[in-house]
């Protein structure tokens, strides 16, 4: 991530945390639907033919911003995806640059053809806002610190902040709670994405883009991800080189890591790779 993008991420994270603490300074989980009301933003949970999860429009007047949550996609506002979607749409209303675009009458939704790069940045900013609104950085780090390292802390934080396990694991890495790599995999045990914390990169002493080894042997995530498996959690030890290629070419030493994998049914699961001790 570039320095410019890191600074932008920090600005948005601080804005989201400020708003969360303004209305929910000592209450967790944070309710994004109540925040909408406090900020004078209207929202509507109805069924729409379109495939969108959430949509924000500007109408002007005393209640200028309206958020639409698609009931066809999100039947209940109580689930973690609906809360995350609401946080995302609040980002469009409360991040100043997004707000200004909406006030000009410009849509923040991608039309499938034009301005893909710009839209990708806008969506990333809204996602960053949502994560830090629902899991304010300082409160999140403090909460995780009460439950040890890795998956144990993530599972407790997910329950306390009422956020999905995958988004909590991602935030755990982004907040650099402890040096780790968070891996998201699908129901087949195939890797969808991974995130390396700053602390882990610092240990590696190299900001390289790790290249995932798709031919590695049967992994914990594939083991517990299989439909026949009754396991939901597994912990074992693994070498960094079994997950990522070309370590030697980057003069990075191989290391033995704790691998924790947690299954999330049809949504796949999450693995955390971390060191036994880093302090």
- H/I helix tally: 11
Outline type? elongated
Regions with little confidence, pLDDT below 50 for 5+ residues: none
- Helix % is 40-55%
The major pleated sheet works out as: 5 strands, antiparallel
Order of helices and strands: HHEEEHHHHHHEEHEHEHEEE
CA-CA gap between termini: 26 Å
Going by helix content, strand content and strand pairing, the class is: alpha+beta
Residue share in β-strands: 15-25%
Radius of gyration, CA atoms, in whole angstroms: 20 Å
The counted number of beta strands is: 10
- Widest sheet: strand ordering: 5-4-10-9-7
pLDDT average, as an integer? 86
Q: Could you please describe the fold and organization of this structure?
A:
By secondary structure, the chain is an alpha+beta fold. It is 42% helix and 19% strand. It is built from 11 helices and 10 strands. The chain has helices at residues 3-23, 32-38, 80-94, 96-103, 116-134, 137-144, 151-161, 165-174, 198-204, 220-225, 240-243, and strands at 42-46, 54-58, 65-70, 180-185, 191-196, 211-212, 233-239, 244-245, 256-263, 269-274. It has a 5-stranded antiparallel beta sheet with strand order 5-4-10-9-7. α1 (3-23) crosses α5 (116-134) and α3 crosses α4. The radius of gyration is 20 Å and the shape is elongated. The two termini are 26 Å apart. The model has no long low-confidence stretch (mean pLDDT 86).
